[in-house]
Amino acid sequence: MARSVLVTGGNRGIGLAIAQAFAAQGDRVAVTHRGSGAPDGLLGVKCDVTDAAQVAAAFQEVEAAHGPVEVLVSNAGITDDTLLLRMSEEQFTRVVDANLTGAYRVAQRAAKGMLRKRWGRMVFVSSVVGLSGSAGQVNYAASKAGLVGMARSIARELGSRHITANVVAPGFVSTDMTASLPEERKKEILGQVPLGRYAEPAEIAGVVTWLASDAAAYVTGAVIPVDGGLGMGH
Ligand code: NDP
């Protein structure tokens, strides 16, 4: 059944791969962007998830074009890495605002339509470091761990209405976010990944579309690693 899907940060990287995977299976797909416009075939809505008014306007636009959002993928995210002692409060709160509070803003808005429909799927894109921690990423790891508690609370609140909330925790994926890492750091990371390579964005997308499918109707509150084995044991 074709669904109305919204992917935040779906204009590039992992979000774009997710949006394209839903579109390929015939869903009506909208993506947020912050000015780049939308890739071909996808409905683009301008939205910075740190701005509640822009979130409200984006949902109105998507609903007018595609109907209420039935599948929400909260994927938008940023990093701003530095060690704890050097991290300013602004650096901490800015990352949490985009990655965690932004997810809350879109989840709350999406829940309204899902509750009316008594059906919905929410998928939150977290990270392996949300559970393992990562030196230099106190802000980012905290925001990504926070998504787990949030998704599991939503799973408990809305489960009786056939709404699931799950988390996907990627390891290292070839996108702009990882391209900027120093070569030394990349080598170091790959040495710890049992599969010995980065993921392609499409490999994250496959798990997200599965979570939104009927096959995953009984999966909620789960944290699914897609990390080549990097986070095993957490
Ligand atoms: P990119 O840096 O390639 O893309 C980030 C996306 O998020 C862009 O679409 C960007 O929009 C959007 N975005 C950032 N801030 C905001 C905001 N305030 N409001 C709306 N959109 C915003 O990242 P990836 O594709 O690599 O990452 C996607 C998600 O996956 C992130 O949540 C990231 O933390 C997570 N992740 C990534 C991993 C990796 O190895 N790449 C590993 C684990 C998790 P714009 O184009 O306007 O900047």
UniProtKB/TrEMBL annotation:
One GO term (biological process): fatty acid elongation
Record keyword Oxidoreductase present: yes
Keywords: Oxidoreductase
Lineage top rank: taxon: Bacteria
Domain (Ketoreductase) ranges: 3-192
Keyword Endoplasmic reticulum: no
Coiled-coil region list: none
Single GO term (MF): oxidoreductase activity, acting on the CH-OH group of donors, NAD or NADP as acceptor
CDD domains noted in UniProt: BKR_SDR_c
Record InterPro entries: KR_dom, NAD(P)-bd_dom_sf, Sc_DH/Rdtase_CS, SDR_fam
Cited NCBIfam families: PRK12826.1-2
Family in the record: Belongs to the short-chain dehydrogenases/reductases (SDR) family.
Protein name from the UniProt record: 3-oxoacyl-[acyl-carrier protein] reductase
Organism of derivation: Streptoalloteichus hindustanus
Lineage: Bacteria, Bacillati, Actinomycetota, Actinomycetes, Pseudonocardiales
